Amino acid sequence: MHISGYSYLCSKIVLIMAADRNTKGQFEKGRAKTGGKQKGYESPITKEFRELCADFTREAWEDFLIAWNKCEPKDKVTSFIKILEFNCPKLQTVTLDDKREVHNALTEKLKQMSEEEG
Length: 118
Prior knowledge:
Layout: H1 5-18, H2 44-59, H3 61-70, H4 73-84, H5 105-117
């Protein structure tokens, strides 16, 4: 059976790539980053858009306040909550289930006192 040069080259590349990847094709943990986006990099388009938004906000602030003052109280609250979402991350409920038994002098003394009263 004859393997073309292209097929042979592709099979060698796959073998080379497979050396530092797991069975799912993912890089192994701890592998050094060798390319891609650097940490902290911001796209020039994103940066320009943020600057435009900031400029617009500053320029339209007086108009916003006039409109705000015309709003009903319930609309002010709704608007305020929506605006907060851009500046404050939403908090999530966290359940802590601590099943450790704590033994120290104070807890032992309280346990003993409750048993004596009961």
